[in-house]
Each structure stands twice: as structure tokens, then as C-alpha cells.
Amino acid sequence: MNAVEVQVENISKRYTHPVKGEVYAARDVSLRVKPGEFLTLLGPSGCGKTTTLRMIAGFETPDTGSIRIGDADVTRLSANRRNIGFVFQNYALFPHLSVFENVAYGLQVRGMPDAGIRREVGEVLELVGLSGFDRQFPAQMSGGEQQRVALARSIVIKPRVLLFDEPLSNLDAKLRIQMRMEIHQLQRRLSITTIYVTHDQEEAMAVSDRICVMNQGRLVQDGTAEDLYHRPADSFVAQFIGRVNMLDARVTAVHDGKLEVEVLGTRLRLRNPSFRPAPGDPVRLVLRPESLDLERSRDQERSRDQERSRDQERSRDQERSRGSEGPEGRVVSRTFLGEKIEYVVHCGGENLQVVSIDRGGDTHPAEGDRVRLRFYEDTIAVLEGRKR
Amino acid sequence: MSHARAAGAGRVLKDPALTLSVLVLWVFIGLFILLPMAVLLVGVFSTDGRLTGENILQILSDRNQIAAFRNSLWLAFLVGVFGTLLGFLFAFTACRAGVPRRLTGLMDALVLLPLVSPPFTTAIGMIFSFGPRGLLTYHLLGMKGATVYGLWSTLFSEVLTFFPIAYLALKPMLNAIDSNIERMALSLGAGRFRVFRTVTLPLCAPGLANSFLLLFAASLADFATPLILAGNAFPVLPTEAYLQITGMFDLKGGAVLSFVLLVPSMLVFFLQRFWVSRRFYVTVTGKGAGQTPFDSVSPAVGRLLGSFCAFCALVIFYLYALILFGSLVRALGANHTFTISHFRIIFTEGRKAIRDTLIIAAFSMPLGGLYGVMVGYLTARKKFPGRLSMEIASMINYALPGTIVGIAYLMAFNQPPIELAGTAAIIIALYVFRYGATGIRTTIAMLQQVDKSIEEASESLGASSGRTFRRITMPLITPAFFSGLGVVFIRSMTAISATIFLVSINWTLITVRILENITELSLGPAAAFSVFIVVVVFVVMAAVDAGMRRFKSPGGAQVASVLGG
Amino acid sequence: MKFRMKAVLMTAALLAAAVLSPLAAAETVNVYSIWPENWARPMFEEFEKATGIKVNFVRFSSGEALARVIAEKKNPRIDVLFGGPVETHAAGIAEDVFEPYKPPVFNRLEDRFKHKDGYWVAIADDPLCFMTNNQFLKDNKLSPPASWDDLLNPAYKNMLQMADARTSGTAITRIFSVLEVYGRNEDKAFAYLKKLRPNVQLFTKSGGGGTLPTGLGQAAGGIFFIVDALDTKAKGYDVSVSFPKEGIGAAAEAIALIKGAKNPALGKKLIDWASSAEMQKHFATYKINFVPANPDVTLEPSLAAVLKGAKIIPIDADYAGANRKKMVDRWIAEILNP
After folding, report:
1. Are B555 and A109 a contacting pair at CB < 8 A?
2. Å from C69 to nearest chain B CA?
3. C49 and C148 fall within a common domain
């Protein structure tokens, strides 16, 4: 089966809110999904991702714009003629039909003979790990099992596009992680062009080839997880993906293709962003928690652990040499999480989140300690500053 | 907006099954709902071909008719108030006063009795019990000269007949209130009465308003009870309209009188449909079912409430026992020797009426059920131009008092081009488009329990809307269809106010025979017919209930009451 | 079931019902009977026995029956209007719903038992009477009323039941009786009726509506046709029948052929039979206390005994027919709800 491309061009959907008046559920959304690609629409609730998905499915008709699946313009085509697979958030299994009947439904609609249906259903149930569940009814099954039936039902018809509408929201955390892996692997195997909607950025990053971040009806950024994380297009994306410290800074100089900024009393040399600010301009810095590191202030250090292995100290120094020394601050909170330690450091009027990898040794600052921050400049992104 | 409309119209054209159904429905609705109403309005507002309001003015200046109008409103108001109160009392006792489950089941069954019985049953019982030589007033209490005719007996009889409507509306509402809210209030230190006053009652307010409106409408339309009990000093409009036509052979006059009734009825209908029922803030989450109900009152008060309800139930039971007794004795009040001659009479002389009624009911049931489901589904789930109009139009015959609809049908179908008067078809059409409409609401309510995504899933898998309806939606809402069947059956066995104008040489109905028997004072056969109807209705309802249970698929939506709304 | 199928089914069902409806057997005559079922039915059964023609009938009170006949004028559903006080038929003539027909016995009937042009003939005569509850009389130390003024006795306050003039022929006959008693002086007659009003508990829809309450003691008494009164007595209720010395009216019960009837020949046969001794001899058999209109039938002895000495005033049908509406309107305005 050949995977198809999905092309969405400038689709918009308006509706009239009883209080707010005319509201855009989706506004000028354009995207292109390559054949076999796994694309995720990501954003907070109300951002328009579900509306967009439903327009691609055919459950809603866009007011303007066009949608193409493969060669065909499907903009005005009704949902039942688009040959799509749709997996709903609440699974939408037919409660009065058994698992077998649920999965067989689409095949029956397509007029497949019984023998063929039995074979196909059997195969797909095995694929999702539900062999033997044929006679069960949805009400008797767990959430995870129901989700698999919904999945099986959608893929058995060999759709050109697979659409997922927050399929894992109703599952508990552990199951969510397990299921998303399964979906990811299944999609890889079947190579069906897939569009996935979720508000969970971690989930998006785990399964997608590419992510489209949406906000208030508009598509804000389209890229891989890394693009979004390290090179967010604006504050919204920066703050939506992962955790972040957003700091205001001022450009002091531009030379050698590098941007020199002053922030929290420290000078940093960062990558020059595409919008090319001039000296004196305000900018906003995107500092991920792992872009910062900390060490106990010299004076504090001396008062503790005087006996430390020379090796540890040397490796530490090597690490630290990658970053620039920054301002001092005080540890407000410290959370030990196994493979990492999360700190909140109060510095220059801001509470900064810092993440430190635990490499052993007992040299980590405690709550209340005075610490010195380090900045890892390569990982810091620069955005346009806030207008005064 | 034009985008959406164009899209809607486009959708209709692309979906032939949808288009066809909508068109067919409009044809039927136009023919059997809009046309008769139009004919009625023309009759009311024209004389000798001219458009005029003089008919109305004439009525409005007639002292007697003004009194009738005032009386109708006043009676309806009182029935609304007392009936809601009584219904609330029963519902409250059943849900919140710690009554054991067995007893609530019994209450349910007993309360159902007035709803499924033929007209006049309570009225006859009352004539025997109260009045100058009444069983209770004279023989029991030794009162002399008590009168049974007038406002209070009519009120009493109507309250007993209609309060089950309030009960059926309020009970699920009380049950659905999350009792954690009340427990919360209790934990904050509020006494039980305060909790009731400040938490329970306000949450019930929309339900109470709803019940009031329903009862108001029911009383406004009631033709049978006042005919027997109101006497001459307390005329009411439906009865006056009937007398105008049948006594004074003044069809136009009757039409005008029933038109006057139309205004308050439609007002009440719109209030109930578009204002009150939108304000329900108790949502049925389904979680309420598993919890133990909250005891809103202390055990002592609970027992008091229970006794009062038991007393009311006893009164109802007594009135029905009286009917049963009357069917089995030679002459109630004079000769109490046991006899089955009355039953023999109804099965020989009354055979035609029984046959006719059952045939008509048999045809009306499936058609009425289908009508309710089709309109309910289309208006709830599909978008097409004129959807709201269809929803409103389909309910018109149901919203109006039977007298109006009956007169309208008589006027509209009495002559070519559509001459149905004197046939069974006209009665069937009346039942289908009047009582089938209850199925619309039930269907819509059930569809609300069936998530839209299930139908979208079917669509996404390639099924057309017809197939989706057939294979997915319909099986999930069959309870609504069966409920519609049930309601149409009950009503077709017990209706009189509209159908009294439509019986003919060829087709007659048991309820009309009962009225004739009462008029001729053959109370034995009247009682026997009544007993027959009650038994048949109970048997059929049990069958429909069993059918509903069998067809209910695992995971299908639930229907709380077969009687709908 | 597809939508299409549903729609087709619905239409088919309605059509089927419409078609099913007029299932008339071979020889059937359609009749509205104003006589109650338990009297009409035996008569019709006898008719079928005698002629083989089935009678398809529905019972309505006089007002309802006339209303229907008039409403169905353009397309009559029945052939014959059977029974009912003659003034009903008189009113119908004005509406042009009857076809004149003179059965064989026509010339031998008394003048008050026929319409001169043959629009109706009488099949029975029915005097009015007073009927009172014996227990009530005993309790109040009264004798059965023997005068119209006896009914004005305050003991009867709110205890009498009688027919409503809007729907019942009994009431019409009653009003015209009072008129005759007062020499057709309308004002005097209505003055009496006004005086009587406080004693009336209920105006009943049908003529005999008050008989059962009287029998039960719910009411003390009323003014009824003799057929209804004696029937009540026969059922076992403890009542007395009496007549006012000033005289009381009788209304003839008539039969008429409907204009435009679909089975006129059968209708005529019914009229022939009903106006002859063939039907009226059965009054005695079935204990129906009508006075036969046909001169060949002798009055049943027990009925004759009851009527002995009673002053019966025949109500002039033409006078009644001409003034019916006027009197009814005045009654509604002045008496019904003062």
C-alpha cells in the first residue's frame, strides 16, 4: 500500500459564540504531511488542533481553504468517502457490537466477503495484541483494551490517512506511555500517513516525526521536536514545550556572527537569531533548565567536604569550562529525582529552574545554599524582546 | 452564516436518504398538523369568506364563555400548584425519606394507575363517594346535603389524575442530585431542614417549574373530568367547546372557543420547552445511581411523609376499587348482587368498540413510534434547512388540548379533497401525530446519551448516514422506540377529548362508549369497560417493558420511564 | 430498514387504514340513534330478524346527532335518524337535511305524530313526568310532587336534576311544557323557571342524566321522560313517579330519512317497519315504556296504569320547532347561570 501525502492549505473555520461573537476555531492553517509521516498537532485546549483534524477527517467543513489527500481534493467530500481511519478520544466503540463486529464493520461497509473479513480481522487483532477477544463486548474491557480495538478497527480498512484525536487522554500515566510506544511502532510498521492530536508535549515528542504547534487557531511552528525545543519560534512555543526560564536581556553588541547580551548582570555570547537585533534592542532569552548549571559558591565550598578526590574535581572543572560563569543566587528548592536533581534558584529577582545530572559524590548544593550559576550558551535561543 | 447554510443545503443534496426522509416528514406534517390548524384558524377568523375578528369578539363578550375561560385558567393554576406539591411529596418520600426499595416500587405502580386509566374513572368514583348520598359523605360521615359538583371536586379529581406526571418528572431529578452536595452541607453544620431549604429545593426548582407547566397544560386541556364533575356553575372551555358543537351544532363556535384555549396552551408549551427545560442544572452523570441516597429528613418526619403518601395511595386505590366493584354488581348504590352481566355486555354489544379500538391502536403504535424516532433523530443529529421549524411543527398537535385538534381535524377532513372523516385513518392520524410526538423528546433524550462520536466513527469507516442510522443509532435507541409504542398505545386506549369528534358509524372507541354509558347511566358497563382498559393497558405495558429489556443491547442507553415526558 | 422503506410503509399503512374503513356488509342501513343503546339495539335486532337487513348504528344524544347530520350535510354518512324528540327533527328541517317520505301508516297517524309534508313521522310518544327519591320524601315528610309549584318547595333546594337545554331534547320538551302551562306567555313561564333555578343541582347533558343520582339519593328528583323514569324504577331504585295537575308535555319520538342518503331504499324500509305495529308491539316485550304512536298497538297495561289520570299536553311540533332557538337562547341567558 502506498502512503499518500496530505496537503492542507489555508483552512479556516469560524463560528458564532453567544458571548464573544465571531470566533475562529482555526485560522489560515496550512500544513503538509509527507507520505508515511507521523505528524502531531500540538497545543493547549481550544487552540484549534481538534477542529483542524476534524476538517481533515470530513466531520467539519472548512469555511475557506482546501484539503487534499493524495491527488484528490477532498474539501467538500463527506467523511465516509475519504477512506480515513479515525481514532477517537473516547474510543467510540459500538457498544452493542462485539469486538469482532466492531472491527469488521468497515470491511462490511466495503462489501468484503465473510471469509476475507474473518481473516483480516484476525490478523489485525493479533497485530494489536487482542487475539481471542473477538466475542467480548466493549463494556467488559479496560480502557487500554478498548483503545486497541478502536485502533484495530481503523487500520483494518487500510485507510490512506490515520487520524488520532487525543487517543490516550483517558488512560492512566503508565498505560499512556506504553500505548504511545505501541502506536509509534505500529505506524512505523504500516507506514500509513498519520496525523495525531494531543496537548501533551512529551507524548508529541515521543511519537512524532514532526510537530505542528497551534495556538488560538493558528499554526505557530512546524518542525521536529528538536527544532521546537531548541529553536522555538516564539515565547508561546518556548513555554509550551518543556520547561523553560524566559529572561529579558539587552543586546550589547553584535560581532563575529554572535550576539552579545547582558542578562542578570552577566555578559553572554549567543547565536545570532534570524531577526537580527541591533545593539540596544531588548530580547528574550530561552533558557532550558539544562542550559543552566550551578555550583556552590567558593566560600561555601571551602567550608564543606575538604577531602574530595582530585579526579572528580578535574572532571567537574572540565564540564564547567563549557559554560560561562553567571550571577550568584540562593537555592530555594531542591528535588532529588533519581537521575537528576531539580533546583529552583532565586537570582536577580527571578526564580530560575535548573537541572543538574547527578554523577555521584555528595557535592550538590542543598536548600538555602548560596550558589553560582553557569550558562551553557550554545543551548540558549534568542527571541524578539517584549515591547515596552 | 451563509457559509453554514450553504454547507447545510449541500449536505442535504448529497445525502439522498436524508433528503427523502425530510421531505416525507414534511408532507405528513403539513397534511396532518399544519393543514388542520390552518383550516381551524381560517374558520375562526373568517365569516362568509371575509377575514374578521368578530367571531372572537362575540365569544369574548359572552358572559358565560368569559367565565369559562377564567375558570379554565384558575383550575389549571390550582391543579398545577397542588399537583406539583403532591407529586413532589411522593417523589421526595420515595427518594429521600428512607423508604425501603420494595415500597417505592409499589408507589411507582400505584401512581401509574391514574395515568393509564380511561377518563372518568376518578370522576365516577367521586360521584359515588361524595355528594348528598355519597358513600363517604353520607354513609360514613353522616353529612347532609353535600354537593359533589363544582370546582373543588373537579380540582380533587384532576389532581389525583395528573399528579403522577409531576411524580414521574421529579423523581429522576431528585435521584440525580448528587447527594454528596447535601452531605457536604450537612458536614458544614447545617440542620437537615436547612439543607433541604437551601440546597435540595433550589436544585429542584427547574423541575418544579417544569411540573407546574406540564400539569397546567394537562388541566387546561382536560375535557372528561369537568364534563362529569364541574357542574353548571363552573364551566370550563374544553367542555364548553364540546357542548357548543355537539349541543348547539355550532362547529364554528366550538372552533372559536377552542382557539381561545390555544393561546395559553402554546404559551405554556413554549415556556416549558424553551425556557424551563434549558435550566436544568442537575446533570445525570450516572454516578448518582451507585450512591446511597441522602436522608433529607429525620426518621420521624420520614414516617410521617410515608404515612401521608400511603393515605393518598389508599384514596386512589379506593376509587379504583369502587370502579371494579361497580363492574361486578348489578346496580351500584341500589342493588349489590354480584353479576358478570356487565362484562358479558361489553364483550357482546361492546365487541365492535373493543375491536375498533384495538385495531386502531395496533396501527397507531408502530406508526407513532416510528414518527417519534424519525423526527427525534433528524432534528437532534442532522443539520438541514428548516430543522427548528420541523421540531416545533411536529410538537404542535401534542402541545394543544385535544379538543382543538379534534375540531380542527373534523373541519379539515370533512370534505374533499381530503375526506377522511368517518374512517379509521383520521383517528390513526390523530394518534400518530399527537401522541407519537412524545417519542420525539424521548428519542432526543436518548440520543444525548449516545455520544456523537460513535456515529462519526461509523461515518469514518465509510458508512452512509442511512447505514449508520440503521446499524448503529437505531439499535442504541430502540428503548425510545418502544417507549413511543407504549405511550401511543396507552393514549389510544384512554384518549377522548379529541377523538370524541372523530368517531363515526364505522369506527367507534371504547372511551366514547364509556361516556355514552355514563350518560345513559349504565354504570355497570361503563365500569366494566374501564376495568377492561386498565387490565389491557397493564398487560401490554408489561409486554412492551419486557420487549425493551430484551432488545436493550449491552451499553445501550437507558430509559427511565416508559411514559416519556 | 432504510428511510425509504419506512416512508413507504407509513404511507401504505395509512392508505390501508383508509381503505379498510367502510366495511359495509351487503345489506346494511346506517343509522344515528338518539334512543339509548339498550332500547335501540333490541329494536334493530328485531328489524334484522324481520327483514334480513343489518343496522349499523351509533348512539348520540339529540343535540349531538343533529349537529353531526348538519355537519355531514354535503356527504351524509347515514340513511336514517332514528328516534329523538320531534323538535330535534323539526329543527333539522330548517337545515334541509331530511328527505320527505310517507310510510304506509302515514294517513292513519294523528296529526301531531307526523309532519304534514312527510319530513318525519312519529314512532312513539313520550310523556314527561316528575320522579322523586322516596327516602328523600320520607326524610322531609313530603308527598310526591303533584304540581309544578310543589317543585318550588325550599326542601328541594339544590337537589333537583334535569336536562340541559343546550344538548337535550328532554329539556326542550320541559321548557315548552311550562310554556303551555302558562298559556304560551313567555315572561310568566320564564319567571317560573327562574324561581325553580335555585332548586336545581345540575343540568345534565342527557335527558335521563339525573335519573341515577335521583335513584341513589344524590339528587332528590327531577323532570324526566317516562321511559327513563320507569326504567330507573325497574332497575330497583326506590323512586316515585308523579304528574303535575296543571298538565305536563309529551314529545313524540320521530324518525326521518336523510337527504342524500346512500341507501335510501333500505332507509325507507326501516321507516316503514318502525312506524308500523311490527316494531311498536315490541315495546311491551322489551319493557320499553314508550307510548306507541301507531294506532294499531294497544298500550301496555302497567304503563297505562301509571299514566292513568295524568294530564298530558301534546307539544305542538311546529310551534316548538319555530321557537326552539329563541327559547334555548333565553334559557341560556337567564336560567343556566343567572
Report:
1. no
2. 9
3. no
- Same-domain pairing of C43 and C164: no
DSSP SS3 for B359: helix
Question: For residue B395, which of B494, B492, B272 has the smallest C-alpha distance?
Answer: B272
CB–CB contact A80 B462 (8 Å): yes
CA distance C167 to B189: 65
Q: Which residues pair with C124 in a beta bridge?
A: C253, C292
Overall number of domains in chain C: 2
State the cell numbers at A169: 487522554
Looking up cell 303535575 gives C244
Mean pLDDT of chain B: 80
The C-alpha cell that represents B485 in the structure block: 409504542
Domains B65-280+301-316 and B340-565 share a fold: yes
Please check the confidence at residue C100 and state whether its pLDDT lies above 50: yes
Instruction: Give the chain B residue nearest A92 (alpha carbons).
Output: B454
Residue to mutate among B129, B249, B364, B513, with most C CBs inside 10 A, is B249
* C139 in a structural domain: yes
What are A103's three cell numbers? 472491527
Domain at A290-309+322-377, CATH class: mainly beta
Structural domain span for residue C227? 127-250+310-336
The Cα of C172 is separated from the nearest Cα of chain B by a number of Å equal to 12
Q: Give contacts of A111 with chain B, Cβ < 8 Å.
A: none
CATH of domain A6-235: 3.40.50.300
Model confidence pLDDT, tens digit, residues A15-53: 888 787 888 889 999 999 999 999 999 999 889 999 999
Mutate which: B133, B464, B503, vs C, most C CBs within 10 A: B133
Q: Please indicate whether, in this complex, the C-beta atoms of B246 and C67 are within 8 angstroms of each other.
A: yes
Strands C121-133 and C221-225: what pairing?
A: antiparallel
List chain A residues with CB under 8 Å of B10.
76
Domain identity same for C327 and C212: yes
Q: What are phi and psi of A251, to 5 degrees?
A: -75, 125
**Of A106-110, B199-203, B239-243, B481-485, where does the model show the most confidence?**
A106-110
Q: Return the domain boundaries, chain B.
A: 65-280+301-316, 340-565
- In tens, the pLDDT along A222-244 reads 999 999 998 899 899 999 988 89
Question: Dihedral of CA C191/C193/C198/C199: which sign?
Answer: positive
The pLDDT value given to residue A312: 60
Query: B370 — contact with chain C (CB < 8 Å)?
Result: yes
C-alpha cell at B78: 390550582
pLDDT band at C23 (very low <50, low <70, confident <90, very high): very low
Best probe of the B interface among C5, C72, C200, C216, by most B CBs < 10 A, is C216
Q: Are residues C221 and C319 in the same domain?
A: yes
Q: Nearest C-alpha of chain B: how many angstroms from A149?
A: 12
- Fold (CATH) for B340-565: MetI-like fold (1.10.3720)
Interface touch B249/C70, C-beta < 8 Å: yes
User: Which residue is closest to C220 within chain B, CA to CA?
Assistant: B132
> In this complex, does chain B touch chain C, defined as having at least 3 beta-carbon pairs under 8 Å apart?
yes
Q: Any bridge partners for residue A382, and if so which?
A: A285
Q: Do C13 and B363 touch (CB under 8 A)?
A: yes
Which phi-psi region, left, alpha or beta, contains residue B162 (left: φ > 0; alpha: ψ -120 to 50)? alpha
Residues C36 and C157 in one domain: no
Contacts of C41 in chain B (CB under 8 A): 349
- CATH code of C43's domain: 3.40.190.10
Q: Which CATH number fits domain B65-280+301-316: 1.10.490.110, 1.20.200.10, 3.40.50.720, 1.10.3720.10?
A: 1.10.3720.10
Q: Do C14 and B429 touch (CB under 8 A)?
A: yes
Total number of residues shown for chain C: 338
